[in-house]
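Quick one: structure tokens for this chain, please?
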Amino acid sequence: MIKLYHGSDHVLKYPQYMGGKDDNDYGNGFYTTEYPERAESWAALNGNPKKSIVNMYELNTDDLMIWDLNNCGVLAGIAEVAANRGTTQEAAAIVGKRIVARYRADTAEYDLIQGYRADDSYTQVIEAFLMNQINVFEVEHLFYKGELGNQIFIKSEKAFERIRWTGAYEVELREEDKRADLNARREVNRFLKGRMEAILLDGFQVPGITARYAVQNELVYQQESGGYVNAGL
């Protein structure tokens, strides 16, 4: 049994299977976190500032299959988000399809997905990777800089049948949360703008594992070392 929290602008006692949107991080499902302070921040920053609600739940995870994206490497996370959220640039979409085909895991049989949270503004980080402007290490670094936190995605009908609402409470947007979020976004934007200028004006060549390298080589993630090896070597 685990306790989960969901930030919203209303009380949600009965999350509905397939009641969400397809173009979220991991597709259509219910997004929660094990950390109440993270749900409070999500509710206040992304919901109705006049009424931000944190819903509390319990979920019996016995016999549920859980896929932990954090153990699969950055490329698997990029592939999952790119497959569900898509891209805004045609060139990024071309590369994205190849990344998805090679590195997206098959989660059809899983009930829950645990992984790092993205949002609409952080898809620009993934697009920058797909455009060969940053490498996989920088993607991970920029995502953690944003402090969006981990989430647990309730995916299967079986999992939805197990979740139980235990209460809700109202929160207010703390000024420090707002400043931290804005500062993180500005820092990410500043880094990406500086990298673009370096590539276009100075001929900077991005080191490490870029999207081009990941497409041209079959890379395997090693959880013990937290890095990738080339399967062809």
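The mean pLDDT is 87.
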